[in-house]
Backbone:
């Protein structure tokens, strides 16, 4: 049986003879001639790097370094048994979250991502202590230990998680974007997902709706080349992910996710386009994770040489460091910065170890708004 | 930003004049009322805007409230519910319609992993106050993909509320309460009784709602609290627990057989009015549970377990269940599958004789 049930509805179900005017507006901007699927990428390629001052680059560097040191420490705590369950480290991908989120407007824009979410929270400047305490499942954690590594939230930063089901956050992002538009608050939503999630059906349902309704959303595919242990080539018919919005008339951008200045520049172009009411943009950020998918992944699906090659030649933090030195920043200053960050991360780890676990009564809180 | 709002107002039954409505009209009236009252309420779904819904529940609302608040979606159930969760997290009150409950399965990922869990995993920071409306149940020859009653899938999920009205009056009040509720609610509309109180006697002429006392629907705003059952008729011979269409089947059988049963319309399965159940079973000592859904792991199993746990020493007979069979919903044998008056009557006889 077709989707319309009653026989009386059968006739009307077929395309109505006359389309209401307002219906047409819902899918406006579809005239093929002036549709610029490639214009953003072209504009970006003309001048692909953000013109950062030494000070700005230093800020990016500091944020990236904090993420790296934090994740290294998280890996250690996991090894010590202080973090249980699942823990997905962001090491190698730091430039993506740092570059993209710097182009957002705090207090106005919203962010949502998948389970590899520590870096995004740190990029926002959320206190590493309460993030680490969430990883160790303590009451002081940002979700009182009930979310864990994959499920962290912050109303203060309009950070909507932290979602453990691959790809499930993408439609939520469109809902957030709808709400921005409905409220007329000028905000945009940045919805991150990975190359693996990019093969989920609900992502394409969302592309269609977001484009149809011209929602203010930047779709960000963090292509770290592997969906767990399956390489992009082994899982994807179209490995150029930025092209995957084309069928929905969503312009794509292909960005080197290992260069924070390139990421920052691309983000600026994408966000401006979206904020101007032109509908969604799809960004593919090519990046690489140095560690396994999660802590239990021995990463046998790739060679040590492959990983070492990326570390040696395209590391986002080393790259930024070399550039800072070229800009005349004192190397000792960078060393001091590293020391300070290490101390900050150690403090976060101490806090996360020494905070109490949630009381058993927390089991039944926050299930429903009301009791049941 | 999604914050909890203090909308836990006490129930207020409007003193406005009532008129007879079908359940479809009552639902439309509830949606109209809430669109009018709260600019954060949004309706979305397949065919609900321009077309007014396959069952006409949203007829006229797009004309009245515009395309931004009442709009058609692509056929993307997972996407629809996911988008609604995001809207809710941002502070809106979306009311997505899934055209048939049978189509809800692609959206289960979003309902279970996102809507039901968002509050818990954000330690109360975010909520997903969406109300998913969906016609459900059989009796319209819909076959296996347009007749199902999947309520137990949802009652099994902590973090969701599940509501099933059985009259136009309740449909309006419960839907308003569901929309105002800060938790995600699955609102199942028994489509067999959209247009009349079907009592399972399928070979008799269908009755319209027009003359039914519970089709009197007050104008304007009123709500019926979630978690409060309705005593359909008081009685002392046995307790019948039912919801949706089966409430009317129970009524019909008791009327035909002249059985002094106490019939309880649960109205909401989660939260469940266990107190009403307990009070009644303690009084009657016998309990019959009815639902259209398949038997194994159905909501009736939960009810039977609860009654056994809480009323064991009052029971004079084992709890009886009359349900759909553990088969797909058939097309041609619909009335053999449907737990109609004959099977319900036999179970009542068995309990009365016990």
Residues:
């Amino acid at each position: 049986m077709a989707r319309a049930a009653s026989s009386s509805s059968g006739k009307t179900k077929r395309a109505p003879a006359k389309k209401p005017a307002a219906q047409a507006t819902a899918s406006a901007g579809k005239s093929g001639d002036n549709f610029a699927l490639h214009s953003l990428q072209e504009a970006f390629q003309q001048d692909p790097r953000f013109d950062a001052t030494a000070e700005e680059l230093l800020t990016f560097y500091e944020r990236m370094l904090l993420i790296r040191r934090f994740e290294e420490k998280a890996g250690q705590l996991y090894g010590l048994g202080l973090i249980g369950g699942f823990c997905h480290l962001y090491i190698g991908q730091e430039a993506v979250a740092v570059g993209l989120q710097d182009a957002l407007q705090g207090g106005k824009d919203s962010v949502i991502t998948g389970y590899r979410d520590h870096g995004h929270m740190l990029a926002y400047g959320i206190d590493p202590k309460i993030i680490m305490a969430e990883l160790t499942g303590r009451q002081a954690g940002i979700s009182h230990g009930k979310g864990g590594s994959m499920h962290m939230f912050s109303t203060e930063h309009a950070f909507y998680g932290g979602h453990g089901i691959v790809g499930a956050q993408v439609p939520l992002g469109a809902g957030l974007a709808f709400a921005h538009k409905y409220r007329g608050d000028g905000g945009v939503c940045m919805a991150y997902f990975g190359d693996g999630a990019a093969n989920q059906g609900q992502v394409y349902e969302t592309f269609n709706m977001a484009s149809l309704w011209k929602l203010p959303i930047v779709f960000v595919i963090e292509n770290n080349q592997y969906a767990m242990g399956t390489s992009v080539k082994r899982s994807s018919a179209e490995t150029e992910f930025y092209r995957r919005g084309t069928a929905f008339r969503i312009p794509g951008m292909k960005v080197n996710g290992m260069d924070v200045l390139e990421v920052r520049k691309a983000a600026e172009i994408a966000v401006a386009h979206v904020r101007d009411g032109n509908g969604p943009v799809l960004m593919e950020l090519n990046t690489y994770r140095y560690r396994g998918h999660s802590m239990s992944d021995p990463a046998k699906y790739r060679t040590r040489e492959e990983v070492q090659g990326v570390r040696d030649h395209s590391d986002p933090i080393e790259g930024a460091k070399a550039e800072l030195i070229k800009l005349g920043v004192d190397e000792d200053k960078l060393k001091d910065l590293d020391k300070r960050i290490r101390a900050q991360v150690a403090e976060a780890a101490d806090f996360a170890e020494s905070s109490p676990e949630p009381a058993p009564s927390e089991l039944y809180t926050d299930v429903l708004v009301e009791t049941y | 930003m999604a914050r909890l709002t203090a909308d836990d107002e006490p129930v207020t039954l409007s003193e406005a004049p009532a008129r007879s409505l079908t359940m479809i009209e009552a639902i439309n009236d509830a949606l109209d009322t809430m669109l009018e009252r709260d600019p954060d309420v949004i309706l979305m779904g397949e065919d609900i805007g321009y077309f007014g819904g396959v069952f006409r529940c949203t007829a006229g609302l797009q004309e009245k409230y515009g395309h931004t608040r009442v709009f058609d979606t692509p056929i993307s159930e997972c996407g629809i519910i996911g988008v609604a969760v995001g809207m809710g997290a941002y502070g809106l009150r979306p009311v997505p319609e899934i055209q048939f409950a049978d189509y809800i399965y692609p959206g289960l990922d979003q309902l279970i992993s996102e809507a039901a869990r968002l509050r818990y995993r954000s330690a109360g920071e975010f909520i997903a106050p969406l109300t998913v409306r969906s016609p459900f149940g059989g009796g319209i020859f819909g076959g296996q993909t347009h007749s199902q009653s999947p309520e137990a899938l949802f009652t099994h999920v902590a973090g969701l509320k599940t509501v099933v009205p059985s009259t136009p009056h309740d449909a309006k009040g419960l839907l308003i309460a569901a929309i105002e509720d800060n938790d995600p609610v699955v609102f199942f509309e028994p489509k067999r009784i959209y247009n009349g109180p079907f009592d399972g006697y399928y070979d008799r002429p269908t009755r319209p709602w027009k003359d039914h006392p519970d089709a009197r629907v007050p104008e304007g705003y009123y709500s019926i609290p979630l978690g409060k059952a309705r005593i359909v008729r008081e009685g002392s011979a046995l307790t019948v627990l039912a919801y949706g269409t089966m409430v009317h089947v129970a009524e019909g059988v008791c009327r035909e057989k002249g059985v002094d049963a106490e019939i309880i319309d649960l109205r909401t399965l989660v939260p469940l009015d266990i107190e009403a159940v307990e009070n009644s079973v303690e009084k009657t000592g016998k309990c019959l549970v009815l639902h259209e859904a398949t038997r194994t792991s159905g909501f009736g199993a939960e009810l039977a377990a609860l009654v056994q746990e809480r009323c064991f020493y009052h029971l004079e007979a084992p709890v009886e269940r009359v349900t759909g069979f553990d088969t797909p919903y058939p097309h041609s044998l619909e009335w053999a599958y449907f737990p109609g008056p004959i099977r319900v009557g036999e179970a009542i006889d068995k309990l009365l004789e016990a």
Observations:
- DSSP finds twelve helices and 14 strands in chain B.
